[in-house]
Amino acid sequence: MSSSNTDKVPDVAPTEDNPAPPPAIDGQAVTGAQSAGVKAAVQRENDQSPLPANEYPSGMKLALLMTSIFVGMFLVSLDRLIVSTAIPEITNQFNSAGDIGWYGTSYLLTMCAFQLVFGKLYQVFSVKAVFLGSIFLFEAGSAICGAAPNSIAFILGRAIAGVGSGGITSGIIVIITYAVPLQKRPKYQGFFGAVFGVSSTVGPLIGGAFTSKVTWRWCFYINLPLGAVVFVFVLLLLHVPARPKEELPMKEKIQQLNIIGLLALFPGVVCLCLALQWGGTTDAWSAGRIIALLVLAFVLLVAFCVIQVWKPSQATVPPRIVMQRSVASGFLVASCLGAHMMLIIYYLPVWFQAIKGDTPLESGIHLLPMVIPLVVASIVTGQLVSRIGYYTPFCVFGVCLTAVGAGLFTTFDTDTPVGNWVGYQIIYGFGLGACTQAPNMAAQTVLPREDVAIGASLMFFGQTLFGSIFTTVGQNVLDNQLADRLAGIPGLTPDIIQGTGVTDLFKHVPAQYRAAALKGYNDSLRVVFVVGVILACLSIPASLAMEFRSVRSKGQPGGGNTDAVATAEKGKRAANGEAAAVGEKKDPAASS
């Protein structure tokens, strides 16, 4: 056998059952510490190498698999807001007006708390098993909500569905890494962004239609047949090659989950979400309960971070991932995007209903000028990134455009013409579509495939958590502004302002003061939009900090860490007595 054959790196990563032979130097096998070093370098390269072309699904199999997981994403995103227009009818049936806050919070709370955990589960256990388990939890929670006999059962169902949704969102990115080569992923990520944007905005419309035409219970029953289709197609079509960590004994797998860290993360996120839910609404921010929750959240989340540094090999979010430049900046971009997107999507319909007199259905329809450009830009950007290779320029362009669009919303007045609010939404929506998938693409490009699950979970965690936080911040800003600006108007007491719906508020205003009340409400909403502008502007420096990396660079895997591959190559060449010149011959795109 020739030396060149002996030196060849196997296409499939070595396993315990099929170990790779050590490379040879001048026809002799390498032994001892030198062999161990070479094996480590070769193993690193194999762990990060793309699958052979024939391992990726294609044709109808790929189309069905992608369609099924996008349906799953649609259902998960839909469930965040579909309940908003159904809440009045649900509270009427259960006589549970005091539980309104829990109907949305219970879903987002468990989704946030378990988001990072699923990133680790996908790394240690079978991808297919974890994803199917997540679908099962989401379906079970939806069934409980649909059949709920009382408010407590409904809240429990929402919490269970939230756990499943956390696993589905992270799992979709992981599945894409095993179904599509890196250079082709951006176009599928574009469809992913389009699905997310559409479902986030049409949720209230669908919820209102079901509630008024059939029953609110169908807001949740609709998940059952569609979720079952997703379950079956993923079960039959998804193939993920065996990975080393899946072969670990169960005891070691559990140790990898970093239970101590989770004991700090779960209650920390719960305390933070509860404080934000209750602060300024059921309790004053200065109330002892709110202060205690915020202090506990701070202590527990700091403890979680310390544990990650203390035990990096078992960390839920390893420091080496968080400190990676593109991952850190991508997390900041995702957090800011999630925050201002939820703020705009939540409070723009309020402006339409309060200032323009729209019905809930009409206000949802009037969001289409934002939704359509979002979908178009997301798909077009995905196609362009696949062709060009670079996602960072589109991210920078997109966040700048969203900042402009969000800034234009602050110019709204009581007589803003249709052309203006349509045009402003087009600018904002197109910007969102151009940049919303960049953080996930960054994680897939710069991280080894085994770490993509954690990187993707981190992005979704930031997007979901900060979206929840700033929706609450927006509510507190609006309440405080309304209290200041409407206080002098006859007929409007603080209790009426705080406890009356958007459109019913003006029924308490004498006709001669209606214009002043409208102006006060409009100006209050403009301050809320200012918060969105600040968040959009903060995402600009974060996007500029992203590395200029290409998804088309050779050697990049399902997260193409080209430098790690080059290091492995150097190790092999050094072991063979060859000149290790890989560093000088790296792909220019990767070194940018």
3D structure, described in words:
The chain crosses the membrane at residues 62-82, 102-122, 129-149, 155-179, 191-212, 218-238, 259-278, 290-310, 331-352, 364-381, 388-409, 421-440, 452-473, 527-546. Its main location: membrane. Pfam families: MFS_1. GO terms for molecular function: transmembrane transporter activity. This is MFS toxin efflux pump. Helix 6 packs antiparallel against helix 10 (223-237) and helix 17 (368-388) runs parallel beside helix 19 (418-435). Strands 1-2 form a two-stranded antiparallel ribbon. It folds into 3 domains: 56-238 and 250-257, MFS general substrate transporter like domains (Growth Hormone, Chain: A, Up-down Bundle), CATH 1.20.1250.20; 258-313; 317-548, MFS general substrate transporter like domains (Growth Hormone, Chain: A). It is built from 25 helices and 2 strands. The protein has helices at residues 3-7, 32-48, 59-81, 87-94, 100-124, 127-147, 151-179, 185-213, 218-221, 223-237, 250-256, 259-278, 288-310, 319-322, 325-355, 360-365, 368-388, 392-409, 418-435, 438-446, 449-485, 494-499, 514-544, 562-575, 588-591; strands at 24-25, 28-29. 48% of the residues are buried. It is globular. By secondary structure, it is mostly helical. The two termini are 40 Å apart. Strand 1 (24-25) and strand 2 (28-29) form a beta hairpin.
